Amino acid sequence: MKLIYNVNDKPKFSKLIVFAIQQLLAIMVATITVPIAVSSNLLKDFGIVVTLSPAAALFGAGAGTLIYILFTKGRSPVFLGSSFAFIAPMTAAFAGASTMALGYLGFLMGAIFAGLVYVIISIVIKFAGVNWLNKLMPAVVVGPTVAIIGLSLAGSAISNLTSGSNVYLCILCGLVTLIVTILCSTFGKGMPKLIPFICGIGAGYVLALIFTIIGNAAGVEALQIISFAPFQALLKDGHVAFTTFLSLPDFTFLHAFGGFSDITGGYILTVFAAYVPVAFVVFAEHIADHKNISSIIEKDLLDDPGLDKTLLGDGVGSMVGAFFGGCPNTTYGESIACVAITRNASVMTIVATAILSMAVSFISPLVALIESVPSCVMGGVCIALYGFISVSGLKMLKNVDLGANKNLFVVSTILVCGIGGLTISFANGAVTISAIACALILGIIVNLILSKAKDTEDEENEENAKIEK
To answer: pTM surpassing 0.85?
Structure first.
């Protein structure tokens, strides 16, 4: 892929800010959805009222990303965001706590356990190298796994696209967002080509705003696509206050200090059992994501800066992210897809996005604006983002002979198990091996079993030789 901005390129400051806004828009929905989902699960399943702060999650994502960039020596253009894989462990950690403070402390303990898994694996890789990993996970395994990452998110994109009281208007707003994004990326000149997501989201938001204004004026609820509740919440008792403009995010560590006296050995084991197995699952996705971005920038990040460095950055960044926002971080496919679509692999753009994410978390109106973007608009963008993740995985298969049975079986096993949603749960659902991880594990096993099989061409040559004799 011919990049407009390479990894070491530094766009002008004015452009850099715009590019950072675009990256932030690409990752923001997933990042703030995780704390909302955990709060919802705790209320629904256990009756526990906890409101994890989306603003704090944005700050944690930005801080974790800066740590990742530091450990990878500025060579990997990837943003870290809240990991969906840890929603169940976070819920289990809080539900198993005897006090509210211990629940928040459990988030931090869990993130440390998960991060230490990455640290230990990185030390092993530092001494053992990555050649064994390349043999264990060749393109025939990694390619379809990356494709599954995108395809597994397809349902989420369509769910967002169709969410709202008037499904048809929501689909219209989402499709306008998608089409404008596509047109700007394909036919745009200059800046529009570099910021297709901003153009698309802006077009979709404006259309949704027009419908909402008409709906409010006419009293037709079906036309009210945008919720102004995030803006209304800025007013304290109906009046403008300092917090209307600036406010300190509700950081997780502020609630955790009172929980130390309530720690028990049993609770530590509960958190350990909930987080550590999931960390091994996310490790597999870490490999797939870095194989993906490596194919985009045409440089193997597992060799330079090295898998040990990317794991350390991801692990420590995850700990830092949870310290502020409660949610462990992970590399984001949405960020990688944004790099692929815009052809902007500048690490400075990722750094600017991280700083912007942290700054925005303090600015109340901007947080409200982000929260007010309709799901249908983001659904339109996600169709492109998740689709690009899938396609980038399939591109890894371009040099793989799918005429050979051994390759065909590996790819088909991964695709069917991944798309079919094969998951395995332990400890009453507290630990779940995701469909992506199950598909990857089965793919590795099938590939190892068939590794000694001969290629189709070799088999045909042998058959022809027997016939000639």
So the answer is: no
